[in-house]
Amino acid sequence: MISTLKIPAQSQTLPGSEATMDPPAEMIRDGYKGADKLDGKVALITGGDSGIGRSVAIHFAREGADVAIVYLSETEDATDAKRLVEAEGRRCHLIEGDLSDADFCRRCIEETVDKLGGLNVLVNNAGTQCVSENLTELPDEQWRRMFEVNMHSQFYLAKAALPHLSEGDSIINTASINAYVGPDFLVDYSATKGAIVSFTRSLSNQVVGRGIRVNAVAPGPVWTPLQPATLGAHNPQWLEGFGEDTPMGRAGQPSELGPVFVFLASQDASFISGQTIHPNGGTIVNG
């Protein structure tokens, strides 16, 4: 059983650092045993250097997958994530760059196929957020950037990945509980996450006949570097008690998200497509 996180006031700057989080996040729980659920698969995970993405990378590796990790600029975190994947006996390829660039997204797919020999699972996980409590003061550039990073990148990557995917392969998009609850200080972020839910449903309908499944994960509050780098940067005290308003009374750990992605990527989820899974601490969102 995971105990309640005691998170003190703190802040970071974007894109955030796993190494400086207080307390450190848990990536994989003690005793998690792989069962070759992804044996021989190749996965590309955006934002795989830290937080939920790093946990997904480690879990995928323990289940037998080789992993490509895309990250913006956090070289220390990315190098550490690679070390953790390789410690599971799997290959890991790092790709640094900005996912708002369509050409870079296409290169990510090409590099993964070239370096790791194919592609079976695309995890569109990278994202950013910024606090803005007044829509009239939200900069136009911030609105555009939010969609370019969070939403447009998923389109670019999925478009480039689909020619390489075949029956039994999958795409998993990271949405958010905020697509459903709509916090008033994250209007642009919540809008992108709502778009991701709809993108997931429509893309699933388009490709499920080919045996390719497309699903989403909509996490609730999870202890990742994005929180101190955005909520904490706006007001360090906002992180005190982070997640305590969930029915479970706590924030989640990345270790509790990794197995959700394993499930959706594996044949355990062979009859699931176009759906959104809600690991959010018990909040009912009816989505």
From TrEMBL:
Residues 1-15 have a biased composition (Polar residues). Keywords: Oxidoreductase. It comes from the Bacteria. It comes from Halomonas alkaliantarctica. Residues 1-23 are annotated as: Disordered. Belongs to the short-chain dehydrogenases/reductases (SDR) family. The lineage of its organism: Bacteria, Pseudomonadati, Pseudomonadota, Gammaproteobacteria, Oceanospirillales. InterPro entries: NAD(P)-bd_dom_sf, Sc_DH/Rdtase_CS, SDR_fam. PANTHER family: NADPH-DEPENDENT ALDEHYDE REDUCTASE 1, CHLOROPLASTIC, NADPH-DEPENDENT ALDEHYDE REDUCTASE-LIKE PROTEIN, CHLOROPLASTIC-RELATED. This is SDR family oxidoreductase.
